[in-house]
């Protein structure tokens, strides 16, 4: 791999004011929250979209699947592009694609246009890893931990805010208004980032690995399409089996190609290091455990009271049930940063995974009363805050400065695969635990409790995985050295 090199700031970023520097973290956090809101806003619409677009429920489901697939493919690709061509440049491009997708959704009711637009919006999944990489390059070590923790928490904060806000708009206004709103927020985000965030001076020289990007895209599409559509198409169907076989073959060839390429898309030699590889495994497991909370809680509280366990809540009320979790993530992100600074990020990760498991114990103990449902969901959100804030810190300490965006992109990809797998497993569990209520097939309480149990066990495995990650002493010294190097680099640039 080429060595990262500092470059002068591009035109328009010199002569910066202190205000712009102070706004760097809030503006990047706004972009992360906006990305999570974008992923969530379509959820309240799904039951009504077949009628509104004149299409089938299967076609409408692609509005979620398209975003998942494009986000999974583009996150590591855009992360690598950011390392090579400029993180702010790629970040604003990703948010611009999201904004264009929102405008397309606002202007059309054609399901084909809507699916295409949602695929464009998947590019915003790269916002968090790119922003974290910018924070590493631009902030001194004493500020970096808290900023990275906040940036990681924006995923949960945005999701908790997006659901009730979208539900309110859908309930009291035309559904196109929701996309006009996200489009306007996206335009504000792009402008704010271009104004407040300077281009990172750290670049990884070389040529972009086009073949590696194509191979990863094909392999991930086969894998995630099989996982996301397995329940609908049948896990033993020829299409699903062909997709999984294709994923294995393509990703094996991609792995071989990456090891033999001078400047690969993903440096697999880094992945083979225990600190990086085990962090990616922990990300996959944590993504699985976290996502089950949102999926199951939303369905459980909206189930009719005739089931004996459901509360019959509306989609707006459901979103409000998840809102305390989002607020908790915002408030506790500085706490997680302090724990990482004092004990190391692997301890924070292990603690977060253990708290997630504790939250599922609360859910299993009582899922009848609203207050215990909210309490359990909030405990899971608390653990997610600690875990998600620790993961990028582990990656930042373990990889060279010139590869932080691409390495964090892979870490976010692993979370995405974990979430997709969680969705498939939860759906499979609930389908096998169905009873008829008023002529409608609905999951039983036992099915929900089993889903909680599976997610809790996965969280414990994530905790054990975190504890096997090598200690932080060496990386702490490296982080300090990196901070001094960054300071010397900036002084050199100022002198130039």
Cα-to-Cα separation, first versus last residue: 26 Å
Q: Largest beta sheet: what is the strand line-up? A: 1-2
> Which geometry do the CA atoms define?
globular
- Residue stretches low in confidence (pLDDT < 50, at least 5 long) are 5-15, 473-496
**Helix-strand category:** mainly alpha
Count of β-strands: 4
> What would you report as the Rg, rounded to the nearest angstrom?
22 Å
Largest sheet: number of strands, sense, barrel closure = 2 strands, antiparallel
Q: N-to-C SSE series?
A: EHHHHHHHHEHHHHHHHHEEHH
- Overall pLDDT level: 85
User: Could you estimate the helical fraction of the residues in percent?
Assistant: over 70%
Beta strand %: under 5%
Number of helices: 18
Description:
With 496 residues, the chain is mainly alpha-helical. Helix content is 78%, strand content 2%. It contains 18 helices and four strands. The protein has helices at 18-40, 49-53, 57-85, 87-107, 111-121, 127-138, 141-172, 175-196, 210-233, 238-260, 268-271, 274-302, 315-343, 345-365, 370-398, 404-431, 445-468, 473-495, and strands at 5-6, 202-203, 434-437, 440-443. The protein has a two-stranded antiparallel ribbon with strand order 1-2. The protein has a two-stranded antiparallel sheet with strand order 3-4. α4 (87-107) packs antiparallel against α6 (127-138).
